[in-house]
Amino acid sequence: MTAAEKVLQAATDRALDIINNAKQAAKHELAGEAADAKKVVNADGVNDHDLLIEMKTQLTRLIADVNEIKNGNEKRITELERSKADKTEIESLKKEVHTIKEDRVRPLENIVSKFWITMSLFTAAIAGMITVFCFHIFK
Asked: pTM for the full model?
């Protein structure tokens, strides 16, 4: 082996050692950074894991509240649907009220009409008798 080859071999070995050392240093640095990234602390002093647990708890509460509201609305809608009257029911009730009016009120109206007619005739007869009576008295 010539002197140039020896120098080239030595330089190659030295370069490989430097690259391996840099590789090991980078690996350790990257592992340290990853560990530090897990320990990131927010401005409030709470780490991300605690923040995630708190957010999950609040989200669970929110879902429960929404379900409670939904169930309450479903019950309310069911009650309204149960107690509401549909158009056919209203129409049948209108017909029933009209029938009741015809059956009960019309005979009463007829009786009242007959009463006033009878009172008018009676009043006319009384007035006629008084007139005849006065005519015979003052003759």
From this structure: 0.32
Q: Which domain holds residue 73?
A: 41-84
**Same domain, yes or no: 98 and 115:** yes
Region of 45 please: left (phi>0), alpha (psi -120 to 50) or beta.
left
The model's pLDDT over 46-87, given as tens digits with 9 standing for 90+, comes to 566 777 888 888 888 888 888 888 888 888 888 887 777 778
Structure tokens at 81: 């649907």
- Tokens 């240093």 belong to which residue? 25
**CA neighbor of 48 nearest in space, from 60, 59, 39:** 39
Residues 5 and 11 sit within 8 Å (Cβ to Cβ)? no
**Do 60 and 32 fall within a single domain?**
no
Task: Give the chain's domain count.
Answer: 3
- CA 12 from chain center: how many Å? 75
Q: What is the greatest pairwise CA distance in the chain?
A: 182
Asked whether the beta carbons of 133 and 127 are under 8 A apart, the reply is: no
What is the distance between the alpha carbons of residues 23 and 78, in angstroms, rounded to a whole number?
Answer: 70
Under 8 Å between Cβ of 1 and 7: no
- Check whether residue 135 and residue 103 sit in a common domain: yes
